[in-house]
Amino acid sequence: MGRRVYVCILLLPLVLLASMAPAQAQINQDQANQVAKAPTPSWVIPQSVPTGPFEAADERGTVQEILSTQHKTGATSEATYRRMRVKFRSLVAIEDFGPIQLSYDPSYQRLVFHSLTIERGGKVIDRLPGAAFDVTTVEQNPDYLIYNKAVTVRYALPDVRAGDVLDYAYSIEGKNPALKGAAYFAAELALDIPIQRLFLSVRAPTDFALRVSRYGNAAAPKTTYQNGDVTYSWSADDLEEYVPKWYNLPSWYVNAPAVIVSNDTSWGEIGQFFAPYYTLPADLPAELEAVAAQIRKEHSAPKAQARAALDWVQKQMRYLALDMGGTGGFIPRSLDAIFQTRYGDCKDMAMALTALLSALDINAQPVLTSTRLREGVDKLPPSTIGSFNHVIVRLVVEGDAYYVDPTAGEQIGTLDTVEPAPYGKGVILSADSAGLVDFPASPHAWQRESETTVTVAPKDRDVKLTARLRLNGGAADTVLIQLQRSGLKTLEKNLINQYEWRYPDVSLDGEITFERDDDAGAITLTLPLVLEEGWERLDEEDSFTEELTLFARYFDRLPLYDIDEERDAPQYLAYPVRVKD
User: Fold this and answer.
1) Residues in CB range of 467: below 8 A, 6 or more apart
2) Based on the number of CB atoms within 10 Å of its own CB, is 435 exposed (0-12), middle (13-18) or buried (19 or more)?
3) CA nearest 378: which of 253, 276, 506?
4) I need a labelling partner for 197 at 20 to 30 A (CA). Which of 157, 278, 281, 313 fits?
């Protein structure tokens, strides 16, 4: 069982290569005409075509001859140049390659093609002058209800034949206006395909302080200075396919040789950087003030007021990330817009809860955190762009600090028993943010407590099972979401299925009881079950000898630990599991 988690701040991946394949809708031809065509920028370092055999790709249908990614950054400008040169040995390889597909946000970026050629039989065919690009809108992450202005550009290659070489280069220019002064570039130096020539570079003004971090035995960069800029570059020839040595790794562990180049900042500076975007207006929306007044009327204790405020945001606002302002999901909307529409992403909902708590004279601040890296966020260098992908709220009542997630959906419990945000660490957004803070652990010793009472009658081969399942904190919250999404009947079916996978003949022997304890933050489910002919006599003697085998429901689902003595990488384990069976 898992909690509802929505990701709403852009988190750049390590591999800055191909493209995306999300849901699309056709847009007008004017945007297609916005795809520019221009010569290669002068700052790009040219790469010659490699010659000689490439044994690593001898049996491949596609040969990646050149893969060049070059990034130029500064305080207010940014551009990423990419060149791919691919040789197709078969028609199947051409089909697998598919169309050229690129994504960008036209609200602050532009796409520029520099070259697009096919080489065949010693001749170069220039396809760029007459290239017709197909442009579609993008739902950045429809599964997470995230929508923005990004578009996908496709070019279906006409008349490509086995033996042809496709060579194309393009740039995406433009810096997110919300990230002035920030920089982030991450790439792997070994991929899951052989590459005959790989080249990576990052260029920036010498006074634009950058930090270079290397992982997985990545080589040190070549550093050059020219015209007031510094360039870090990596190059390699005849790279074989990278095959990971170990699997089941923590999300923060970088397995392949990789580099991250980011602005040289601290955790506290990140909190200070984003704090102004969450400054509350002098005049709060009238609806917000009315909600605060109602909460004051119904609850006198500060803890009860804080819990009511969290409950209101979680129940009255729906999650929807709709970024049409070109800020790439880094800036919350205005409080007026948030309360008028009653929807928002994690930034909006954190802003709403912070403002509502402020109206109740409760100290509260937004907190950046990572749903992916979690407590391992500090294993990678601090990055204004790459470290965090979620916003929660820290509030202080009667000297105690609480970290809550307004996007978690309805939760059970008082302020002291409600499940806190389970992400481990984060950065408070404030003018004096000091750095990473640790989130408190769950107040519940166990997330799930399972107790099964077995009743066996000597003259009846049926076995009666009374399964009592107590769900605490986050596990109970998951049940609440399941009830809202699918109803009680579906929940009952899912619970019975958990027993059927081990006992195929089990069936319900009465009604499931559902008990909710809001003070304890727990839900107790009791399932009366019957296992027909569940035991058998082992001998024909008059003596009473019976056998019944029962299994703990969760124990055999725990992850297995890799005990390979040669393992030199950490292993992800879902502990503490906090399951009592």
Assistant:
1) 450, 451, 452, 499, 526, 527, 529
2) middle
3) 253
4) 157
Separation CA 217–CA 234 (nearest Å): 13
Rounded-to-integer distance, Cα 427 and Cα 407, Å = 18
Contact predicate 239/167, CB 8 Å: no
- For residues 341 and 320, give the distance between their C-alpha atoms in angstroms, rounded to a whole number: 10
150: left (phi over 0), alpha (psi -120 to 50) or beta: beta
Kind of pairing between the strands at 448-457 and 460-472: antiparallel
Measure the CA–CA gap between 537 and 545, rounded to whole angstroms.
Answer: 6
Structure tokens at 530: 């019957």
Instruction: State pLDDT tens for residues 256-304.
Output: 999 999 988 999 999 999 999 999 999 999 999 999 999 999 999 999 9
Q: Which two tokens stand for residue 117?
A: 């050629």
Find out whether 49 and 65 touch, Cβ atoms under 8 Å.
yes
The predicted structure's pLDDT at residue 538: 56
Q: What is the DSSP string of 261-312?
A: EEE---HHHHHHHHGGGGPPPSS--HHHHHHHHHHHHH--SHHHHHHHHHHH
Q: For residue 278, which amino acid is it? A: Y
Contact 337, 343 (CB under 8 A): no
State pTM to two decimals.
0.84
CA torsion sign for 82, 83, 87, 88 is positive
* Separation CA 467–CA 71 (nearest Å): 59
Buried b (16+ CB within 10 A) or exposed e, 160-189: beeebbbbbbbbbbbbbebbeebbbbbbbb
Tokens standing for residue 436: 């990473």
- Give Dmax over CA atoms of the chain in angstroms: 99
For residue range 132-186, what is the model confidence (pLDDT) as tens digits? 899 887 655 544 445 566 789 999 999 999 999 999 999 999 998 888 888 999 9
pLDDT single digits (tens) 513-525: 889 999 999 999 9
SS3 494: helix
Strand partners, 223: 232
Q: Are 34 and 145 in contact (CB under 8 A)?
A: no
3-state secondary structure 347-400: HHHHHHHHHHHHHCCCEEEEEEECCCCHHHHHHCCCCCCCCCCEEEEEEEECCE
Q: Provide the pLDDT for residue 264.
A: 86
Lowest mean pLDDT among 58-62, 85-89, 565-569: 565-569
Beta bridge partners of 418: none
Q: What is the pLDDT of residue 27?
A: 41
